[in-house]
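Session log. Operator J.P. requested a structure for one protein chain; no other inputs attached. Running the standard single-chain path with token output.
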Amino acid sequence: MALATDVGEGLGPWRIADDEALLGIVTSANVACGFHAGDPVIMRRTCEQAVANGVAIGAQVSYRDLHGFGRRYVAVPSSELTADLVYQLGALQAFARLAGGGVGYVRAHGALYNASATDTEHARAIVDATLGFGPELPVLCQAGTEVHRLGEAAGLRMVSEAFVDRGYTAGGLLQPRSEPGALLTDPDEAAARAVRMVTEGRVAAVDGTEVEVRADVLTVHSDTDGAVEIARATRAALEDAGVELVPLR
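Structure written below.
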């Protein structure tokens, strides 16, 4: 089981999270690759910090949407999106290697993550980019989504992700951020829910429905209020429950 978070999501002098603290807690880092956030200096520094802490480096690829932080759907053709994703993978790989590591997995960010759950064309772009760049790399996504289905069919290793700090719909997808119940900010509540997702494979949706989840990786969003406390509480609760936390490789 891996515990992951999103890092490297600043730009120039601006930062939105305490990456250094988070990289001392989690086992895997979803690193922004410059298209929704991040720049060369931040990418290099983040990779160096991850390697120093023994944290796996994952490429968090996105639509080309710096102004919208990657949270806006972009109607880009699949072939063009594939090229954008390979570009991001290559950029992060360069900095990861300079730091003495390497890109260990692939994960979509924001609107691309949500779109690829149901959009065959954009799910295919993630799969094609991974196949072209490094078919040995695992792809992190929610189980049962379109990208999960296409990746498995293509022979990729698909790793199932669940979310410590995000609300779920009755259909098992993420509650949109603009709607009630989208975020959980209480560390103890989030940690208890994380343990249940791992040990029971279930989570309560925002409407109270019990939803089945597969959790090979648990993710805490670094821009959630109290993210460091949530990550710390989650790690402690999982370890108390006997769950071994390792980097995603």
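Operator note: The radius of gyration is 16 Å.
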